[in-house]
Amino acid sequence: MISSGFLLRPCKNFIKQSYKHNWIKPDGFETGIQVYNCITEGKTPLILKNKQLITWYTCGPTVYDTSHIGHACCYVKLDVIQRILKSYFKYNIVMVMNITDIDDKIIYKANQTNTLYKDVATRYEKEFLKDLQDLGVTEPNIILRVTENIELIIDFIKKLEDGGQAYKAKDNSVYFDVKHYNNYGKLQNIGDQMIQQEQNDFKKSSADFALWKGSKKGEPFWHSPWGTGRPGWHIECSALASHILGSNIDIHAGGLDLRFPHHENEEAQSCAYHKTNQWVNYWLHTGHLHLKSAEKMSKSLKNTISIQEMLKIATPDVFRLSCLMSHYRSNVEYSKELLETAENLLKVYKNLLNSCDDYKKGYLKATINTEILTQALNDAYDNIHRSLCDDFDTPAVIKCLNDLVSVTNSMLHATVSSNSDGGLYTVMGVANFVSNTLSMFGINFESKTHTSQDFTEIMDILNTFRQNVRLIGVANKDQEVLKLCDNVRIRLRHLGIDIKDHAKASSWSR
Description:
Blueprint: E1 14-17, E2 29-37, E3 42-48, E4 53-58, H1 69-88, E5 92-99, H2 104-113, H3 117-135, E6 142-145, H4 150-162, E7 166-168, E8 174-176, E9 193-196, E10 209-214, E11 229-231, H5 233-245, E12 249-255, H6 259-274, E13 280-286, E14 289-291, H7 307-311, H8 316-324, E15 332-334, H9 336-361, H10 370-389, H11 394-412, H12 423-440, H13 445-449, H14 453-476, H15 479-494, E16 498-501, E17 506-509
Parallel strand pairs: 4-5, 4-12, 5-6, 12-13, 14-15
Antiparallel strand pairs: 1-9, 2-3, 7-8, 8-10, 10-11, 16-17
């Protein structure tokens, strides 16, 4: 959605700019991956400047309040893409993120709560980083705070002013002069645009945006060549990202709501600063998270659910799987039903892995058609590879996994007609493939079910004792003994430990 501040009414004092916004295909190394390109409005090949290294910048939060599940959805989806690139395609990603720790909203919150703006920013930054950790989102390699890099931002603005792309206004603010940049609007694909030329109180054109905000009474400020003030929002990301990643970045990511005006303004001022036609080669934007019957989740609409509130009713894996079930560019409708669907699907995968383990240990007898299962495994591999290369199509990957699980379960749980030869390696191949694919997305059953050696030994002893008692109960048809065994199984299940009774043995798993 284009910001209402950019939908200008035609007037007699305007110039009409007609530019064809072109994406420049980078020189470099082909990856075999296609990604959606908002400039071309279609998929284009992902080409890297360096053979194995990806430079990546993600817009971080403005830390004035508790993060909500809309933020969680964005960062989880971007984390999934990064994991795919690192784990599956074996690329080395250097990821940079900013923290906006000075802003109108932070100042307002500080005044509301009668606290220092620094205390507000510090509190919510800590909350945000803990939320990322709890969600299993990989922390960026480099985190840059705005207030720790003011001089760097000032130097960036000064160069734009010296080059004629910025000007100081009567309010002691500095604005980017859009009419002196001839490719504005390419991310939003505006096309023919009307840029107002009539004067207003401060700006030459209402499309111009602030690089430096002149200070107001009672607000925090820093000294600059233009007087006291603080940076504008858009310039912060340009200056910080350029400082670390330079004049050309492989991937810049964020939510769809940032495409215009934030990313548009970043690209404009950065291209002007670096004297280049393309600062970022690929912009990745995640879809919004909606509540049922709500247009969008946002703090301004006061319809948010905090990340920690959500984690009280769903595990991080369940939420991550609910994000995987929709494409990263698609909107997500958050609901209890969505989480239940993801939770049930997660149980399907866990049960499949447990059944494969039971088959390996001999607890589960089954007839395995090795030829059919091997073909299903090969098809899953090929289809998932194509899906990952096709703009990181995770819903298609989930469908492929479900098809493979269904074929495998149909053999593991069918009536046994005969023992099969060579079935074990194929079943374990399926287990490895399912486990590795989910692990690539950040859902790792092994690390989360890992227990100490002492605990494992204790459970083995308990399971063997219960199994022997149960067999005595079965032999003697002693219902009281069998009831006691059932009670042990039920109580352990409440602790997350599942015991399965087979003909002459019992198995346990987390």
